[in-house]
């Protein structure tokens, strides 16, 4: 596939996400903030599996822009196979399919494919359940909030990352490999506390003895913005898995401008952040008993 065509995939997806971010700057809500309901985790109608990485972010942005309440997506043919029909005039949203090709030593990964592998993006069209006729979703079980919060507590504990409570702000201290958190009572909501704690756990996942995540080589002056975006996406992925709402953090105002600038300067930045976030989420899930 010609380079200019491949690059257009990154540009199109990035522009859609940029539009969703800019639409939410007035109230700090980003396309990855969600209610924690099952429908907020983008899922494929045919496989029943949740989307991953950039597809999760891209479809969140599409749902945000289109006002879709459903988290179920499929191609035109997948909806037809289910006996449903995409309504005439409905606009498709972008999905990203990763294709593996041989990698030369001087090539840089578009997505983390591992040693000797290189992945590049190809776009395909998806439609939300709200855009089709003839589909009636089956209601899924909804756990009481108390059980979801208890699951989040156990999830964080299983990571084994040292945490000290009682600080004036939440942060991860790289040198100490320790998270500092304010007391639970200082948060406005329980899901705010767990969302913040998981955000800091996401930072800790990037330590050298864990995932060894470092953005400084490629994004020298924007490394902090990339790390914060990655931690935010990681938290959003995991909170969706745990069924807990992800609300804007108080420090979002300080990062929104830098996130917008990074995405405008490099159309592949959000792809990398989403890939690293998915790797962090996968690592955290792997630590669970």
From TrEMBL:
<dbReference type="InterPro" id="IPR041459">
    <property type="entry name" value="MPTase-PolyVal"/>
</dbReference>
<protein>
    <recommendedName>
        <fullName>DUF1738 domain-containing protein</fullName>
    </recommendedName>
</protein>
<dbReference type="GO" id="GO:0003697">
    <property type="term" value="F:single-stranded DNA binding"/>
</dbReference>
<dbReference type="InterPro" id="IPR017113">
    <property type="entry name" value="Antirestriction_ArdC"/>
</dbReference>
<dbReference type="Pfam" id="PF08401">
    <property type="entry name" value="ArdcN"/>
</dbReference>
<dbReference type="InterPro" id="IPR013610">
    <property type="entry name" value="ArdC_N"/>
</dbReference>
<dbReference type="Pfam" id="PF18818">
    <property type="entry name" value="MPTase-PolyVal"/>
</dbReference>
<feature type="domain" description="Polyvalent protein metallopeptidase">
    <location>
        <begin position="151"/>
        <end position="276"/>
    </location>
</feature>
<feature type="domain" description="N-terminal">
    <location>
        <begin position="8"/>
        <end position="127"/>
    </location>
</feature>
């Amino acid at each position: 596939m010609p380079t200019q065509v491949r690059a257009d995939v990154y540009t199109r997806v990035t522009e859609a996400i940029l539009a969703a971010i800019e639409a939410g700057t007035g109230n700090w809500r980003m396309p990855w903030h969600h209610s924690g309901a099952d429908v907020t985790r983008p899922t494929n109608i045919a496989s029943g599996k949740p989307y991953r990485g950039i597809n999760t972010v891209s479809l969140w942005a599409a749902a945000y822009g289109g006002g879709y309440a459903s988290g179920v997506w499929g191609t035109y043919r997948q909806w037809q196979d289910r006996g449903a029909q995409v309504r005439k005039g409905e606009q498709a949203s972008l999905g990203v399919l990763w294709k593996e090709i041989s990698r030369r030593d001087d090539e840089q990964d578009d997505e983390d494919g591992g040693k000797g592998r290189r992945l590049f993006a190809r776009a395909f069209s998806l439609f939300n359940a709200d855009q089709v006729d003839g589909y009636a979703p089956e209601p899924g079980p909804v756990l009481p909030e108390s059980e979801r919060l208890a699951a989040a507590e156990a999830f964080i504990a299983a990571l084994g990352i040292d945490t000290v409570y009682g600080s004036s702000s939440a942060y991860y201290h790289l040198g100490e490999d320790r998270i500092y958190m304010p007391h639970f009572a200082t948060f406005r909501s329980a899901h705010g506390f767990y969302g913040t704690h998981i955000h800091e756990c996401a930072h800790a996942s990037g330590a050298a003895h864990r995932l060894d995540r470092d953005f400084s080589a490629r994004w020298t002056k924007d490394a902090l913005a990339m790390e914060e975006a990655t931690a935010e996406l990681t938290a959003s992925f995991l909170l969706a898995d745990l069924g807990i709402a992800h609300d804007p953090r108080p420090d979002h105002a300080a990062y929104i401008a830098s996130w917008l600038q990074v995405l405008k300067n490099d159309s592949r930045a959000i792809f990398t952040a989403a890939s690293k976030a998915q790797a962090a989420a996968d690592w955290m899930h792997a630590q669970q008993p």
